[in-house]
Amino acid sequence: MTWDIEVYYDGDCPLCIREINMLRRLDKKGKIIFTDIASPDFPVQRGTIGWQVLMDRIHGRLPDGTTIEGVEVFRRLYTAVGFGWIVKVTRWPGISHLLDWAYNIFAKNRLKWTGRCEDGSCKI
After folding, report:
1. pTM for this structure?
2. How far, CA to CA in Å, does 123 sit from each of 17, 87, 98, 117?
3. What's CA 4's distance to the chain center, in Å?
4. Which of 26, 52, 79, 120 can pair with 84 through a Cys bridge, CB separation 3.0 to 4.6 Å?
5. Over its length of 124 residues, how does the chain's per-residue pLDDT go in tens digits?
């Protein structure tokens, strides 16, 4: 069986884990490789991508080795589990820009919003 995307996710992020667990349940054909970057076994450097870069935004890897990030990762994940029809809507002008904007805000505030900051500092 071949895979469509490897997703690098933060296993210490409660919101991220909810999404990943849902995708695991939906991935009946094994099209997604799930890689937890918070795992002690995860190398600090993954190819040319450093751990902090992976923490800053969601990333994925395609079978040909291409790295993708941000909303495009979610599009590929949802396509892999059979929701390609929804993904098409996310590519429409306006909707696409809104999703990119919203994801950028989420990525910038993810640690704070998931209770992983202390004294105004968000360190991992």
Report:
1. 0.86
2. 19, 33, 28, 7
3. 14
4. 79
5. 699 999 999 998 888 999 999 999 999 999 999 999 999 888 866 666 788 888 889 999 999 999 999 999 999 999 999 999 999 999 999 999 999 999 999 988 887 877 766 655 555 5
**Tokens at 35, concatenated:** 């890689």
Q: 């099209």: which residue's tokens? A: 31
Q: Alpha-carbon distance 123 to 53, whole Å?
A: 14
DSSP-derived pairing of the beta strands 59-61 and 5-9 = antiparallel
Count how many Cα atoms sit within 13 Å of the Cα of residue 46 in the half-sphere of its side chain: 23
